[in-house]
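[step 3/7] fold_predict: job queued, chain A
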Amino acid sequence: MSEIIYKEIHEFELEDLEDLFLSVEWSSGHFPEKLQIAMRNFETVISAWDGDKLVGMICAMDDGIMTAYIHYLLVRQDYQNQGIGKKLVLKVTDIYKDYLRIVVVGYDEEIGFYENCGFEKADDASPLFITDLWT
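[step 4/7] structure written:
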């Protein structure tokens, strides 16, 4: 593995997005055209590259002044546990350092990772989702 390069870009090849998302078994990888549009629409997108290979990504939305939401954080499985995810989180928290809060919805198995990045689990809140809008 060579040095990981981090880029703040919004334009990605369909194949790169599909490959990255499916490498971590995220179903959104089956919709690379939608992902490509989503990347253009996110306020903040930071990607991690090993040469020309997309190996990680973090995406955030914000209201412009108070609250930012981390929507995607993913790192290819064969690149995990090398500090890439934490570096991506630190880059986003630096961008939003003057905001009142940065929100992330993490799955139970991810809680430890986010706590190591400085996040605290809310005891009085639960995530709510609607994912099957047209079923």
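[step 5/7] annotate
The helical segments are 14-23, 32-41, 84-95, 111-116.
The chain has a mean pLDDT of 90.
exit 0
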